[in-house]
Every structure is written in C-alpha cells, then in structure tokens.
Amino acid sequence: MAWFKKVDTEKKTPRKTLWVKCKKCQSHIFAKEWAENLNVCPNCNFHGNISSADRIKLLFDKNSFSELYSNIEPVDSLKFVDLKGPYKDKFEANKKKSGISEAVITGHGKINGIHVSAALMDFRYLGGSLGSATGEKILRAANYAYENNIPYIVFSESGGARMQEGVLSLMQMAKTCNGIARLNKKNIPYISVLANPTTGGVTASYAMMGDINIAEPFSVIGFAGRRVIEQTIGEKLPDDFQTAEYLLKHGFVDSIVNRKDLKDYISNVLSFYNR
Amino acid sequence: MSHKSENISKVKNTGEAKTKKANNGLTAWEIVKISRHSGRPVFQDYLKLIFENFIPLHGDRYFADDPAIVGGFAELEGNKIMLVGHYKGKNTEENIERNFGMAKPEGYRKALRLMRLAERFNIPIVTIIDTPGAFPGMEAEERGQAESIAKNITEMAKIEVPIISVVIGEGGSGGALGIGVGDKILMLSRAIYSVISPEGCASILWRDASYAPDAAKALNLTADALLKLDVIDEIIEEPAEGAHTGVHKTAENVKNSIIKNLNLLGNLDVEELLKNRSSKYSNMGKYNDINKG
User: Fold this and answer.
1) Which among A253, A261, B180, B189 is least surrounded, fewest beta carbons within 10 Å?
2) How far is A229 from A235, CA to CA, in rounded Å?
3) Which residues contact B27 (CB under 8 A, 6 or more apart)?
4) What would the pLDDT profile of A101-136 be if each residue is shown by its tens digit?
5) What is the distance between the alpha carbons of residues B246 and B240, in angstroms, rounded to a whole number?
6) B residues 262-291 near A, CB within 8 Å?
7) The CATH number of the domain covering residues in A50-270
8) Number of domains forming the structure of chain B
9) Is the peptide bond before A42 cis (omega within 30 degrees of 0)?
10) Which pLDDT tens digit goes with each residue over B58-114?
C-alpha cells in the first residue's frame, strides 16, 4: 500500500488541449493555429495526422463526396486475445473513440471537377492498420473505379498489416493489389498518396503501386521498422532514413507535395489522362 | 493418425487441448519450432529429391543476384516448370551465404523476371516458400524492399500461366507473400505461415517476446488453422514429428501434390485461370457486412 495517492486531476476534469506538440521539431503550437494550418507545423512543415473527414473536406469539391461501403466492418474471426484483451473490444472501443468503423473511408467525388474513386486511411483507427474489412473496402473502391472508368486515389497512413487478424490481414495485401492489377490492365490511373506513417504491409502492397506515388513532407515510409533494422545491422541509421525525402532520393516517390497543394497537384496530373 | 512424440510437453489447458487435437497432437508453438528445426528439409533438399534437369538462372538484371532466392527451369516427373524459391542453408556457413533465406529487393525482382519468363515459355510456375521474412536491412530499404514485394504481388495477379506455391517451412509475412500469390497454396502440415513472427507479435502486443507461444496460438499460423480460414488450398502430410524424421516420404508427398495440382490447373484456359485467381484473392479475409446482418 502506498502512503500517498497521486490525485489524477486531469482525468477528473478533461480539458480541451490548447497546445499541440510537433513530433518533429518539438515546438508547441497553439491548437487552433495547428488546425487552421491543416495539422501541419508552421515552424518546420511537419505534416501531422489528419482525419479522413478533414481530408475529404480538403480534397473534394464542396458536397461532392459520397461515402460507399461504410457497411463493411471488422470481425474478430480468430477470437484474438492479447495482453490487453480481445481484439473485438479493441475495435469497438476504437469505433467509439474515432467515430469511424474501419481504418479507411471509401467513396467517390470530384477533385476540381474530376470524378474519382478514393480510399482515405485514418491513423486514429487501430493505427490505420490493414485488416480484412480495410482490404475489402479498398478493393471495392478500386472495383468502383474499374467499373466506372474513373481514376483511383488512395491516401495511406498506416502502421501495416493488422496482427490481430493473422494471415488474413497479410492476404489483404494480395487482395488489394489484385484490384490494382485490374486497374493497370484497363489503363485506369491509380494515384497513391503516402502520409505519415506508411509502413509494413501497406507500403509493401497498394501504397507503393501508384502510377504516381506522392508523399507528404517528412512522412516516414518504409517496410521494416527502424528499430528492427538497427538491431539487424547493429548500428544507428541516418536521421533521414525512411523519410519521404529519402524515398524521393532513391526513386520510389514521384514527388513530395504539401498538404495544402495536394488537391491542385492531383487534378493537374489527372488532367493529362486522355481517355 | 500419427503417434505423438514423447518429448512433447503436456497439455496445459482445455483451449490448448482443442488446438492440439486439430494439429495432430501439437501446440502451435511446437509446430513453430518444428518448422524452424535445423534438420528440416529445405528447398535444396527437394531440388535434389524430386526435381530434375534444373537449369539455374541468375540475377535481376538491375542490381545483383540474390543468393536467398534461387530459380530456374526444372522438370517434375517430366512436367517442365519454372521453379522459384527461398533458399535457406543447411548449416551456419551456408546460411550466412544465403542470408538465412531472407531475400532483398533484387531477389524479388529476380523472381518476377523468372515468372515473366515462364509466361513467355508458357510453362507453369512452382514457388517454394521458406523464409523468416524479407531482409530487414538498410540496403534492402534503400533499394525498395516494399516496392519489390508490392510489385510481385500485383504482377502475380496478371501472370498468364498457372502458379503453385508450396509453403515448406516458414512462411514469413510479406517476404513469403512476395512469391506466394499462387492459384493454389499448398502447405506442409508442420509448416507455418504468419503475418508476423510469434516473437515479433509478442513483443508488440504482449510487450515481451517470451510470450511467443501465446502469440503463436493467437495468430492461427498452422496449416490446419489456415485451411479452415480458406487461406491455403491443401495440406501436404509430413510425419507428426516433422519432415526431418521422414525426408523421402515428405518429398514424395510434395511431388504428388504439386503434380496433382498442375494437372488440375492445366485444364483451365487462361481466362478461367486468371478469373479464378482474381476471385480467390478478392475473397480473402473475413469481415462483417452490417447490411446483411
């Protein structure tokens, strides 16, 4: 028994956070300013996570986006239980917390007048992890693009495959890429936008398969985790390792585009699609 | 039914007992250990035992020849095929040379080159899967480990000849899937296939790698579990104690299973083949459609 009990005042009176700490430059930014700047640090241009809803507002012409496949939700098919409890409890809690029922929102809408199908991943939901329902939605949105002959755009922010679904989550890599393969065969453009972070099985499947790969500044993009690699090679990795800038240098992304410029960049690229 | 090995530890609880029954008397963790057994037959053993007239082909034509992936023309009881697989060593020295069967981007790109070649020659492809995972190293990232796997997965959906993938030991995540998008996925009964190693999973979700046996059970990584989840198509039997206790018999079973499936797929025209492959992978996974209740 402890003699003194620490009183957790914060828990009793939840306050709205006034300040946001930038993950890159560590500076404290007034929350309102952070939000007005689209969750981008005004100091160092680090692009923080943005909700799928905010991304939709930012990218699509006003009221043009219609959500599709929101009926697809996860199921705990392996009855997976880890130290923190059942997977089912985890995704239900995530749904309550984030207000969305999967790590991706799918639908179609117009970007500067160009009709596209889109999938927008959301890091708030289980770290944007790729599970069966996530894969199903991403495939369906690809198929929607296929059937309607319209470009497909995926925004990724994800820690990778969702471990709690075992190999079923691994197979989502093959499932989603199957959708991309069909688009390739029909010459339908597929644009992949990689936000912070895009790692593991998501990078090693649809996120790297864009006809055009676009990254947001300073996003961490890679396959294996930084710590795993450091353990393997027994030395520290350079600071810019697995950043958008590093990938641009090594030839894996076409361009690094600021969030505020994404909409115009995408519509400009698609204006070259002559079919 | 095979006999249970004596050195297998006792059943701990009823949940585990159920798993044991399904896996012919072994826990998931015991199967993990068998799949990694130092005496377990690897690709080079099957190459000697069941394949003939092997013509190895080297290099990805961009950067290097990855010794962790071996491939080339081969014959299987007179069937001309393209054989591609992860190549583990049989001792420490060989394993260092072969990077423990952990491929780099040039390995996946070589694999894709050979699969494209098979398409031109109009011969089926057999891929042999046995890897702890794709190599997690700096140069692999630099040269696009993620891109090379993604590309293979996407391109394998388009390849116009039959593809049979056989998991003979460790099916380690994306590193396995990078050559694993087959029309048929066959798996030895003591092999594993997982999204992450049990140790890796335990260190993330249990915050302690020593919970690997619990993670192994939770991950459903055994052949029995994966057949039930419709991930694999067929289990190839091996001795209950592991393929290393009956190498010739196991190799024979592998051969027969591959030939059977080659014949099945050989009957399909290209359009049917690709349609079936597409629907196979489109239907992977389990989700809840709330409109359907």
Assistant:
1) A261
2) 9
3) B9, B16, B19, B20, B213, B216, B217
4) 999 999 999 999 999 999 999 999 999 999 999 999
5) 10
6) 278, 281-282, 284-291
7) 3.90.226.10
8) 1
9) no
10) 999 999 999 999 999 999 999 999 999 999 999 999 999 999 999 999 999 999 999
